[in-house]
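User: Structure please.
Assistant: Input sequence and predicted structure:
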Amino acid sequence: MAHYRRELPVFKKVKTLLDSNSIGKVASVKIVIKQKDNTSLIAKTENNWRLNQEISGGGYFHDIAPHQIDLMCHYFGEVEIIKKGFQDVAQYSKQNVAGEMIFKNGVKFTGLWNFNASEDMDSCIIHGEKGRIVFSFYNDTISLSVCEKTEIYKYDTPEHVQQPMIDKTVHYFLSNSLNPCSVCEAAVVTQIMDVFCGIK
């Protein structure tokens, strides 16, 4: 599945920081995505396909949230509890969705996606027992804060953002590496989104 952000340098670095226990045992993670009508966060297209139900099937939330939720599952593993917050998905251009999860390892997740906001905001904060990791999904900078000391990591986005995942997929089909993102993993992301949207 084309959850290409798994293979982008900035998000791989976040996983490395987590796997190396840089902030200790993770307690919670919070995503906040706010976008105003003329946001610069989402790439502009001539026909704005994201708002065409016959093409997109779900509006802004179903376009960008799968990538963010997939990264959370990639970082923290199996989900134990999924809870919807509030949702207003009737208007694709003004969707407002929130939800919570608890992963089997105890990490608590909260997420908010507001596409009818007065400001643009793109934030993911991961809190651990020793510090926190802060990054965004549309920026290539990571902030690692531990014991009142902060380190900043900066990465360049590849010219073709899906190229690293394509390379991994090719290696998988050549039997040279594991599947970089299976359909089973993607099905979990879809289940989470359905609950957040009040479908299940």
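The helical segments are 9-19, 53-56, 59-76, 163-173, 183-196.
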